[in-house]
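Regression test case RT-17, inverse folding.

Input:
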């Protein structure tokens, strides 16, 4: 154990007992850290929809108790037994089951595996990384997947569903930066000005897509980034243009999908699954390098709020109620 580690540190823990599931701030010691080869001093984490589910005690997210939630973290390396990272090096971590199967980012220190880490891109810092977080990383993977499947700015407008949320906001900004004409779908029409400031050319209500019930609707979208699922995804697929592609990366509106094979066999539409949890390391690094280029801190300032770790329990309820727009960075410990 590194001598740089303090005797105690603060963490938000999820506990389960006879009274149910609850969140509680606790003081931990280095002995409480899970197995791993690398210790990170966590300066920042973030708030994602999945974090909201976990901290609110909703079933299905957390696989063990007690556990520190938080599916993202960023900070600096304290020690690395593999020699991959030097002490003090800035790193970030998203996915790989942290905050679900093993302790995550809502603690001042974390022990993880070096292979899960990504070095902070040059010119960035931990706060920027967490203003992107899993949501932004997922959005970047979706955009890259669309591009890999031939979706180009000249192929017609692209649709982003759940556009005022973390994934959606970042997808709108990334697609607009890449030259696409973006239509943003949202249930929060009061956010139209916000979405247009990100680069959306048009904003539509979320009720429009579930209303598309025919197996094949009028061709409209060259590409789609969908973070909603359910009837919204079904409507998006039915209205995607010939040889277009739909990147599915969320289920805020439901995990079911009632559709037909017609868009796939008559229009050649591709349905692309986006997995940000076990994404291979080379693709992770490429995505973060692209994010650093296309989504610098200056572009994220207006869509990001920074809140202290103490606010996480209250924020969990707000994000589940659809009251959080853009990105929320959690300041875990002083930088």
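Golden output:
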């Amino acid at each position: 154990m590194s001598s740089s580690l303090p005797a105690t540190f603060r963490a938000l823990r999820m506990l389960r007992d006879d009274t149910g599931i609850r969140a509680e701030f606790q003081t931990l010691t280095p002995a409480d850290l899970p197995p791993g080869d690398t210790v990170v001093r966590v300066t920042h984490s973030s708030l994602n929809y999945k974090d909201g589910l976990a901290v609110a005690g909703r079933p299905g997210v957390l696989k063990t108790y007690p556990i520190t939630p938080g599916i993202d973290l960023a900070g600096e390396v304290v020690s690395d037994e593999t020699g991959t990272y030097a002490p003090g090096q800035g790193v970030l971590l998203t996915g790989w089951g942290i905050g679900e199967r093993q302790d995550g980012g809502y603690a001042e220190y974390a022990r993880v595996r070096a292979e899960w880490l990504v070095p902070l891109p040059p010119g960035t810092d931990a706060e920027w990384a967490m203003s992107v977080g899993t949501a932004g990383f997922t959005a970047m993977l979706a955009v890259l997947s669309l591009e890999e499947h031939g979706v180009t700015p000249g192929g017609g407008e692209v649709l982003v569903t759940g556009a005022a949320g973390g994934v959606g906001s970042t997808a709108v900004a990334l697609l607009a930066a890449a030259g696409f004409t973006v239509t943003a779908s949202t249930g929060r029409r009061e956010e139209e000005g916000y979405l247009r400031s990100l680069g959306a050319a048009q904003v539509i209500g979320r009720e429009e897509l579930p209303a598309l019930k025919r197996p094949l609707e009028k061709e409209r979208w060259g590409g789609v980034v969908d973070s909603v699922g359910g009837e919204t995804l079904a409507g998006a697929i039915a209205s995607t243009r010939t040889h277009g592609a739909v990147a599915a990366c969320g289920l805020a509106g439901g995990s079911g999908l009632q559709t037909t094979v017609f868009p796939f066999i008559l229009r050649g539409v591709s349905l692309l699954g986006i997995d940000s949890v076990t994404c291979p390391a080379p693709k992770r690094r490429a995505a973060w390098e692209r994010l650093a280029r296309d989504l610098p801190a200056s572009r994220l300032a207006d869509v990001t709020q920074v809140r202290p770790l103490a606010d996480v329990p209250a924020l969990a309820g707000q994000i589940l109620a659809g009251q959080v727009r853009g990105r929320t960075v959690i300041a875990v410990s002083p930088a």
